[in-house]
Amino acid sequence: MKSLFKVSLLAATVMLAVGCQKEEEPKVEPAAQEQVQAETGKAVHFKTEDDKAAYAIGVSFANYLSTSIEKPAEFGIELKKELVLKGIEQAFAGNAELSEDEIRAALEGLDKRVAETMQKQAEEKAAAAMKRVMISALSLRNKKA
After folding, report:
1. Which residues form the Peptidyl-prolyl cis-trans isomerase FKBP-type N-terminal domain (predicted)?
2. What pTM was estimated for this model as a whole?
3. Contact 117, 76 (CB under 8 A)
């Protein structure tokens, strides 16, 4: 459920940033005309501080999403980056293929599977540790006898 909250919070932040932009002609500051080399090899030009902030939101969002995709993979849950990107693209276009209820159910299901897998791994580690402790205790007991 925390993931759903984080995604919702991030979405609200993006919407707030987009919604707060004014329709007036942007002021071009010389310092704001920076270039950033994107992974595609194309330079990104920032004409305004708003452009730079928008890009920063995108990078921050992508970093968060990468973590959100990689973390479940540690537990054997494979999330396809292509589908994540498709979901973003369709959501921004206003034609997501899942309803809000389906989205919530899918995210809650993912959270549940990750939590269950983490719990199972923790139990397995605890059992292995207990086994080592028992073997050590028996070994000490046998040495005393």
Report:
1. 51-129
2. 0.56
3. yes
